[in-house]
Predict the structure.
Amino acid sequence: MKPYKEMSREELLELKDELKKQYKMMRGLNLSLDMSRGKPCIEQLDISMEMMDILNSSSDLTCEDGMDCRNYGVLDGLPEAKKLIGDMIEVPAENLIIYGNSSLNIMYDAISRSMTHGVMGSTPWCCLDKVKFLCPVPGYDRHFAITEYFGIEMINIPMTDEGPDMDLVEKYVSEDEMVKGIWCVPKYSNPQGITYSDRVVKRFARLKPAAKDFRIYWDNAYSMHHLYEDEQENILEILEESKKAGNPDIVYKFSSTSKISFPGSGVAAIATSPNNLVDIKKQLAIQTIGHDKVNQLRHVRYYKDINGIIAHMKKHADILRPKFETVLEVLETELGGLEIASWHKPKGGYFISFDTLNGCAKEVVERAQKAGVKLTSAGATYPYGKDPNDSNIRIAPSFPPAKDLKTAMELFTLCVKLASIERYLT
Ligand code: PLP
């Protein structure tokens, strides 16, 4: 099939009629599929079920340093949990605080604390006229939701193939004291699956912020989430790089086992410099007596060490890989050569980022929803839910059963074709 832009009006009208018939037929299938959130599927949850057998009423719940995990105590996490998560995110255990079940919660707390109490003695952000955050786009909607909730002005920073546009980042960060942070998903980014290059990481580490309370929010959610064993992407360790660059306090690094063990019931952590740890612990000690140590112990006893996590992630990859491949195959078969869309081919993470012709994304998502396939709302990958081009759609292949994914993607590509034809006809 030739590119749509080379078709005559008659050809487009004829094709539109044909596609409409196909769409009507697919609506008749009464599909009900959810591709909106990057949730693991049931098979992925099942691979962690043995973790439930690790602790029972006869287990010894004493941790390595003799602490009874059933009782209060330990603000910043069990030593063995810090070691495990530290190894996972390539940070020494002493640079970590283990929190509860959610890294997003830690990010929220970090912003909230900065708002009310400032960062290492600086003016609380709520006392400033304006606070701004840089937001690489497309990005993670829940990051943007946090900054929007606190009334922080968000500035779009376009992503390139090797990370955010660093010329722009450097300009904003060095010139504007109101810029207090940047959201980053540096490895297998959400949604594009891009891993920041060494050059980009080094430029982050060397930033010269106008604001001394500027922090990089380095959300390492997908550090272990490779799809291909022989094509793993790696990234320079940002805390180490920032220390080398004389900028030791510039980074908060976040992580969790949400998409390793159980989402919402995993273990989450922040890694940062000793100065930041002191600052954070002052607040944390008021907020809680300690997080769930039994869950930390369960994770440590189940995985044992980093090799346990690596082996476990291969099982996730074996389930996810065919799903990603199905999505990419349908995209290529149905849309290849039509010049009406582009998409990323990630080597890890949870998403495939898809771009329609400008002005088509909302319509595609609506059409798919009407026919029973729920996608992430168009615009969700941009601050304030506003995609200036109305083109980006985040595809989350993990959750639907493999057998339904092909049908869902065929419907999706049909919706893309219909919306594109209408764009050309108007
Ligand atoms: N960060 C990113 C980039 C994510 O994509 C997600 C979940 O989709 C999270 C954080 C949520 O992590 P948690 O479950 O640890 O709060």
About this structure: The chain is about 40% helix and 15% strand. The first strand starts at residue 33 and ends at 35. Residues 38, 102-104, 140, 185, 190, 219, 221, 256, 258, 263, 268 surround pyridoxal-5'-phosphate (CB under 6 Å).
